[in-house]
Structure formats: C-alpha cells, structure tokens
Amino acid sequence: MCEKSQTIKELLNAIRTLVVKNNKAKVSMIEKELLAFVSELDKKFKQQLNNFNELQQKIPLLQKANEEFALKFERMQREAQNQIQAKLDELNLKNKKELEQAKKYAIAKTLDQPLNIIDQFEIALSYAQKDPQVKNYTTGFTMVLDAFSRWLEANGVTKIKIEPGMEFDEKIMSALELVDSNLAKNKVVRVSKSGYKLYDKVIRFASVFVSKGNKKS
After folding, report:
1. Which of the pair, 2 or 175, is modelled with greater confidence?
2. 26 exposed, middle or buried (CB, 10 Å; 0-12, 13-18, 19+)?
3. pTM of structure
4. Residue 215 per-residue DSSP state
5. What span, in angstroms and rounded, lies between the C-alpha atoms of 135 and 129?
6. How far apart are CA 127 and CA 125, in angstroms?
C-alpha cells in the first residue's frame, strides 16, 4: 500500500509541474481528492489486514474447538453403542433364560397321568399291609413304583417328604380337613396324597389332614 501511495504522489507531482503555471487551483483540488482517495484506501487496507490477523489468531481456537467436538462426539457415539449392545445382551440373556425355563418346566403338563398311576400303586401298597391276598403282589407293585419314581427323578420330579407331626406348610400342602388328634394344633396328622416338585417348583400340593389340637390322650 505504501508503494501505491508513493506512485500516486509522484503522479501528483508530475501533474503539478505540468499545469502549475496555468491552473494552480484546479491542481490543488485534484491533489486533495487523490490524497483523500489514497487515505481511504489505506484505511480499508489496514482494516482488512486487522481482520485477517484476528482471523488467523482465531484459527487455532477454532481448530481446538473442532477437535474437542470431534472427541466428544466420538465418546458419545461409543457410549451409545455400548449401551445398545448391553441392552441387546440383556435381552438375549433374558430370552435365553425364559427359553431354558420353558424347556425346564415343559414336562409339567404331562405329569398328571404318571403321578396318578403312582398314587394308585401307593394306595395298593398301603392296603397290602392289611389284606393278605393283596400282600402277595407287594414285590411287583414296589418294583413298578420304584421304576416310576426313578423316571420322575431323572426328569427333575421329586416327591415332597412329609411325615405326620410336621408343621402344616401352605407352600407345599393342601389341608383336606381339620381333625381331632393328640398332635399339637396345626400339625400334619396324615398324608392322603403325596405332593411333588419339578425342580424347585411345586407342581402338586400334598393333600393332608391337619390336627385341631384338642384331643386329650
């Protein structure tokens, strides 16, 4: 810009030399106009230069802000992906457990008939102790009953062990009737029908008679 100003000034001097003798006032007016124009150009140039310098100073800050934003976005994206994957894993695990549970307890729907057969054999064995004619079949009944019991156990089915004198437990027992007994109140007097569990789930409550606890010996 300084070189341009110098060139214009030289031009002004040349013009002044050529026409100074004829029209000094006109030369002075032109000179003022040119000088004002040069001054305005110089101001604009300096302003643009200042703007450029300010922009250059801001570039590192903008670059840093851009890098920080990129890192933040990458971190947010990674966290979102991890959360989505964790949710998918949770759903898959839940579905897997539900499927395993369904398979585990699917046999429960088919157990009514085998359990009823076992009930009949247990009744027959109890009568065998009283009836000599039936007692001859005890060995055969016992073998069949044992075979059924082993098959049930192999499939996760176990008989709930209940003995007379035990406390009545509504979680595994169903009370058929309250009866007079020498046993304390709420004690099991007799088991009418055995209860069973499939793994840890009760699939049939034991039917029992429960003591009123009011009979004196």
Report:
1. 175
2. exposed
3. 0.53
4. -
5. 6
6. 5
